[in-house]
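Can't paste images in this forum, so I'm doing it all in text. The chain is below; anyone willing to post the predicted structure tokens underneath?
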Amino acid sequence: MASVNRRIEVRAPAQFKVNFIHKGNYIISFNKDVSVDGMFICTENPPSVGSHVTLRFAVGSVEEVKVPAIVVWVKDSSSEKDSGMGVQFLDSPPPNIKENIIQYVNRVAILEKGMRSA
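Text version of the structure:
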């Protein structure tokens, strides 16, 4: 049976540095995609589903911010590639970060649409 996409917001491919803190451990990683309500973070040892993490990242011209999130799904290292975790932001990102994410997602969507029509 095909999996159901429960995402509300559109995600766009992205790769920027994301640091996350879980149980006092500080891990430096990168994300694979982003939306205004969450992202996928590449990591070989993701915390379990339901774990709370604190993310630190910057998007566009905005300096680094801290955003609390919860792990909503995990893709473990036994998968063929891209092990990591899908996280949902617990609080809406600050307006300046949210706006930068929206601009980034829209820019990627426009680029992808242009490539499909070419």
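The two ends are 33 Å apart (CA to CA). The beta strands are 12-13, 17-22, 25-34, 38-42, 52-57, 65-75, 84-89.
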